[in-house]
Amino acid sequence: MIKVHKIGIENLETATRVYCDYEYKNCSDRLWFEVKDEYSKYMSTECGDAFFVAFVLLAHYQGQDISFETPVSTRLYYGVTEILLPGLRVLNPELPIINVNAETQDFSFNPTSIGTALSLGVDSFHAVASSFDSPFPVTHLTLFNSGAFGDYGGESSRLLFQQTCKSVAEAAAEMELPLITVDSNLSEILDTSFVPTHSIRNLSFALLFPSLFRQFYYASGYPVSKFKLDSASGDATHYDLLVSKALCTESFEVMIAGLHDDRIDKIATVASFSPSNSHLNVCILADSNKFLNRSKSQVRNCSRCFKCVKTMVAMDALGVLNNYSHVFDLEIYSSERARYLGWIIYDAKKLKSSHAIEILLEGQKTPGFIPMQAYGYALSRGQKNLMRKLQHRR
Fold first, then answer.
1. DSSP codes joined into one string, 140-200
2. Over the stretch 225-283, which tens digit does the pLDDT of each residue have?
3. Residue spans of beta strands (DSSP E) within the chain
4. Residue 81: how many CB atoms within 10 A of its CB?
5. Which CA distances in Å does 73 have to 18, 97, 113?
6. Does the first or last residue of the chain, that is N or C, have fewer Cβ atoms within 10 Å of its Cβ?
């Protein structure tokens, strides 16, 4: 049994920290969220929605019943117990059904703002850009230390989060939108992989501000046509739509950005949004990426990893790559273009990658877009992969 106590609050030097102490297996610990003082007025210690979502996720993975002392929104309690948890049990059938005990309440918040998270990637830039052509334009940007900077938290992931905050702040300033950054020890508490839980984690952070956000866009990586909910669904992106339906309150609505857009369509939208020209960052931020920050030019992306390659080739197919000389090393791209196209051809023909297929279809609209050498590189890539498989069998 996990027992979650009332929400507390403490003032730090330039920030405000809200926290919940909890007991589990005769031990006690504390989950906290930290925000700059100027945004603390939008939080509430009387409404436990953010902590409720985070702790129920912990209880699910631990297979433990859970109780809360702070009331939660009636609609959220319904969504978590009747939509989210049954869905998670489909994904993790080996885990037991848990009981969730919390007092519910219809709170009288009157938020008016619309938020989304900006990580500087294609999906998040698309969420911002596309919102301006909708009845619900984004008014606030956010960045959460929810696990994207390190699945299990710790100081190294916190340092990366703080570095990213600076980059996102530059983009937010160019867009003339306020940026709310939130630090937390949620990843340390959950101690589980980020990918299967990212939408739940991130939306728990958004729920910290019941007096601010009326709507919150969540940028999905896949269109709704790829919705999937089964034990093989390793990425929460496949079932973001279910999560968005679950994690609503009487005054807070989650909207999925890009529900019907393929990757190539998103890149085309982002390319029409000028702030992305200087701030787009799709590179893999991992120690295993030996090219990161080693480009001779001062660009934001290594221009060599698979994410960089796919994005650059897509932009080349769309005829917009030259607009991104501040974020990609176009000299590297020019010298490696045939090889990169071969990579895309192989992914499309052999791996049946939908994004690679989209890129080729877009490129074929331009005569001569694919040089003959690219097919040779694709064949070579296939031969190398075959040799690896044969060696592995031995």
1. EEEEE-SSTT-TT--HHHHHHHHHHHHHHHHHHHHHT--EEEEEESHHHHH-S-SGGGHHH
2. 888 888 777 788 899 999 999 999 999 999 999 999 999 999 999 999 999 999 999 99
3. 2-11, 15-24, 27-36, 66-68, 72-73, 100-101, 104-105, 113-117, 140-144, 179-184, 213-219, 253-257
4. 16
5. 18, 22, 19
6. C
